[in-house]
Amino acid sequence: MKITDACVYPYPCGDSSVRRMALEAKSLGFDRLVTAGISSGEFYGIEVSNGILIRDTMVKDLISRVRQEKNSKAVISVQAGDNGFNRAVMGVKGVHILRGIQSADKAAFDHVAAKMAADNCVAVDIDLSPLISGRGIMRQRAIHRYRDILVLERRFEFPITLSSHARSILEMRAVREISGLCSLIDMDTPDVERAFIGVDTIITPPNPAVRVI
Q: Is residue 208 part of a domain?
């Protein structure tokens, strides 16, 4: 299982090269980065997984895009929308992560969506950037939204991922610092440990059941 920052933005989306971000990630205690717009590879012993974010699209177009990426081995994320859209996303095979939940309406992710996420092994991402650089109402809103999500996670046990959404090495944080930030949203050590390996949970197919003949 690999400790993963589930979303960073290397150059050209951000300011730092993927090699420089990988080197920084190694010093911060990570094993893997999910990167936006960068092909998968390995740098300085850090696994780099290609991440694809789908946003502002209809469900029909979303399904088509996910099918196109079926064999790419990319980590496919979808930007959260309203409740009906998010429920539909939970049922699309090939979607790995629902992102941006802190910006969605409070009713956008309910117990039905949570149950579907658990059944289909779709993760909900905790975007740490509002906790790292946010101030005032934006930060408080994110904290409250994440606490609400974690109440549902403890009930339904769907996967959680943690993302810095860093666009520069200056915005990246160490594993220990992230654990401290997560205490603000009532995540204890086991919660954080599960979230750090959340990407493994969603990309590793479950072991097939043993059939006794």
A: no
Letter for the amino acid at 154?
R
**Which helix (DSSP H) or strand (DSSP E) does residue 46 occupy?**
strand 46-54
Tens digit of each residue's pLDDT (9 = 90 or more) over 3-31: 999 999 999 999 999 999 999 999 999 99
- CB-based contacts of 180, cutoff 8 Å, min separation 6: none
Residue 73, Cβ neighbours under 10 Å: how many?
10
How many domains is the chain partitioned into structurally? 1
**Is there a domain that residue 101 lies in?**
yes
11 within some domain: yes
CATH number at residue 57: 3.20.20.140
Q: What is the pLDDT of residue 38?
A: 87
Judge if pTM exceeds 0.85: yes
- Note down the domain range covering 142: 4-203
- Closest by CA to 41, choosing from 74, 11, 81, is 74
Helix (H, G, I), strand (E, B) or coil at 82: coil
